[in-house]
Amino acid sequence: MTVEPALPGLADQANPDSPHYLGHRERLRERFLAEPGALPDYEVLELLLASVIPRKDTKPLAKALIDEFGGFAEVLAAPTAVLEAFKGVSATTAAYLKVVEHAAQRMLQLKVADKPVISSWDALLDYCNAVMARLPVEQFRLLFLDRKNVLVADELQQQGTVDHTPLYPREVVKRALELNASAIIMVHNHPSGDPTPSKADIEMTRAVRDALRAVGIAVHDHLVIGRKGHTSFKSVGLL
Question: What is the DSSP string of 1-47?
């Protein structure tokens, strides 16, 4: 006769020698399923870690990670090598956290794919924020649009240092023509967290705009993304 194994929570009650965290983990899982939004960030991270570290109490590690990086999203956004260097985080655990981050980004990307970007502006901002706001170095992305302002390509154009990313107008024009784009939206992040455009940002944007204008391609906007928010060049009159 085959005997079904007891559920973790029941096993914990039946066996007083079971690790204390098993019953807690089961109760936490039940709370999450009943009302996900009620759990604080460290408990959501604790559940994630428990999926890949099944034989250890993951609450201390979850709290330590959030204390170190400053928040749940910041933990997921941390570079893989940085996560692996943190005590208690193995290469497997770090990879798992990056998969979760990528899954969240992909879901947000699907909300703007194959749709007019202008009518999905909030979804676009959510996507850009998730992908770029917490990066440790500057990245420059170009969103290429067709005649109906539908996103046809989202490409990482350049990656730079903590405060500078080179972007070459000639390369932007070349790629826009290759994709037969009618317009682009420029997006880059400020690792400092402050989305205020710099003088260099403004000058570079105007150089790209003028180069694209010469071949009949528009620049709809330039978004600067930071942890403290975003700035739209168009909204503040810089474009």
Answer: ---PPPPHHHHHHH-TTS-THHHHHHHHHHHHHH-GGGS-HHHHHHH
b/e per residue 32-47 (b: at least 16 CB within 10 A): beeeeeebeebbbbbb
Coil, helix or strand for 156? strand
Interval 72-95: pLDDT, tens: 999 999 999 999 999 999 999 999
pTM for the whole structure: 0.77
Write the CATH number for 135: 3.40.140.10
Token pair for 108: 């947000």
Helix (H) or strand (E) holding 149: none
The verdict on 84 and 138 lying in the same domain is no
- Given the structure tokens 């784009």, which residue do they identify? 181
